[in-house]
Design goal:
- The chain is an alpha/beta fold.
- Helix content is about 35%, strand content about 15%.
- InterPro entries: DTW, DTWD2/TAPT.
Length: about 210
């Protein structure tokens, strides 16, 4: 697939065409160079609402770019992907990171010391609730939640729920829980740089050095 273009000159002058990076989507600064793989010591499975795939502010792409043990599937209410169900059914300890009345803190030693498969719903809170309610196979999983004392640094959207974090920040917290402090710091730095680059790109200019 070729690069996307932004035509600013209505007279057809090619000097008015700004090419977008086909991977990161940036027009004025490419961030692909800093998206080298990071080894994570746990399995992460993202289940994405179809609406999330079209949102330029989606932060899950940072986990998909950087974490080596990260898979993603698109949620389908009627026919969940067979490959997704196979991964869940064949894993020894699949858990859903989603707050419910019976969910436990994700910092529970019984979880962080085991070979867990963390399943994250990549969606708005309203959409995630719909995904959980309409998916019996998700409701059958044990649920855990993050218990954070700090606020989110996600600046591209308004938080829909107090003390909520974006999908990328969930990945950062999981790295910390598995004592991968350096990787968590690196991913956090990449996230902040991407947020700043996205906002600058949206305004039509490159980041100031």
């Amino acid at each position: 697939m070729g690069s996307n273009v932004d035509v600013n000159d209505r007279n057809g002058d090619i000097s008015g065409i700004v090419m977008s990076c086909p991977k990161c989507g940036m027009r004025h600064q490419c961030v692909c160079e800093m998206m080298t793989p990071l080894d994570n010591h746990f399995d992460l499975l993202l289940i994405q609402h179809p609406n999330e795939l079209a949102r330029a502010t989606n932060s899950a792409k940072l986990l998909q770019w950087r974490l080596t043990r990260c898979a993603s599937f698109t949620w389908d209410r009627r026919t969940p992907p067979e490959a997704l169900l196979e991964i869940i059914n064949n894993h020894v300890n699949p858990v859903l990171l989603f707050p419910t009345p019976n969910s436990q803190p994700v910092s529970s030693p019984s979880l962080t010391q085991s070979d867990a498969l963390y399943i994250v719903l990549d969606a708005t809170w309203q959409e995630a609730g719909k995904m959980w309610r309409q998916s019996p196979w998700l409701q059958a999983l044990p649920t855990f939640h993050l218990d954070l004392e700090h606020s989110s640094e996600f600046t591209l959207r308004r938080n829909q729920k107090p003390n909520s974090v974006c999908t990328c920040e969930i990945g950062i917290e999981l790295l910390k829980l598995h004592n991968q402090t350096e990787q968590a710091h690196t991913l956090s730095h990449s996230m902040k740089h991407y947020f700043a680059a996205y906002q600058a790109d949206r305004s039509g200019h490159a980041l100031k050095s």
